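Appendix B. Raw example, untouched.
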Amino acid sequence: MPDIEKLRIGFILARSFTLSAFALFVDTLRLASDEQDRSGRVTADWQVLGSTRNLVTSSCGIQVAPTSNFVDPAAFDYIVVVGGLLSVEEPVDRQSIAYLQAAAVAKIPLIGVCTGSFILADAGLMKHHQTCVSWLHVRAFQERFPDHHVRADRIFNLDRNRGSCAGGSSAADLAASLVRRHISHDAERNALEVLQIEKVRTARDIQPRRPLFEEFDDQRVRAVLIMMEQHLADEVSIEMLASSVSLSRRQLERIFKQRAGMSPAHAYDRVRMEHAKLLLLQSRATTLEVALDVGFVNASHFTKTFKRVHGRTPSQVRSAGSAR
């Protein structure tokens, strides 16, 4: 019987990596690789790579041991970096960075899962590629890598020989897409069914999240709201927002009135003021600094808009939060 060509994945785990994202990615491969949940590595194989065999501790405290040294990157079809807490100053060691850079030179596709995309960007490996991150981390990514193209509307993205995903359950969706591409539709379906994942999600699916002020069913409204959140300081015109979802300005305004009960401009103010409220409660930034951070050029205009949205001035909100 001839050898079966396997889908081969190498994993690099960051310090304080997200265990759920790693586990879902691996289990999707495991369940796709054999029939009847026997966990055989028939059509896929995987290794956890490391410069040492020391245990890597996840953000929840569970530890995972590397299973392989840094072998030739060409031994893998993909190398996946699983990130975790952004507060960790050196999430991977220098040997890991050098290995990823060597893999890029060898044209091995690299994938960042959760904040693994930050690690790839820090290594200079995402600059000419579109990066997908969680809506929770998009501001941090923009601040650290202002010359990179980032998006936080989709669950994952595959851009030539780079991939990225928001983390969490989307790690299973990204893994399933690789299974479908390299193994078969049946293998993908088998894996997702055993994982009790009913619907196959693709790179076109919007990140599931609760908007800052209300939940909307219309995908176009949700996509525009997310784009607004990505451009708090550098306000995007209503025409550009409409174009991003293939609508005219008039069509977008009509949809917002019907679905959100407000105009896109009013919704933009709400998005910016919700972020401003978080900054007031969670940081020591002055009112003017907060105003500038959400796209206002002076504190007076910002205060008027803030009070119209929240019913209280920024100082009143901050005082109430401090009294708790």
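End of appendix B.
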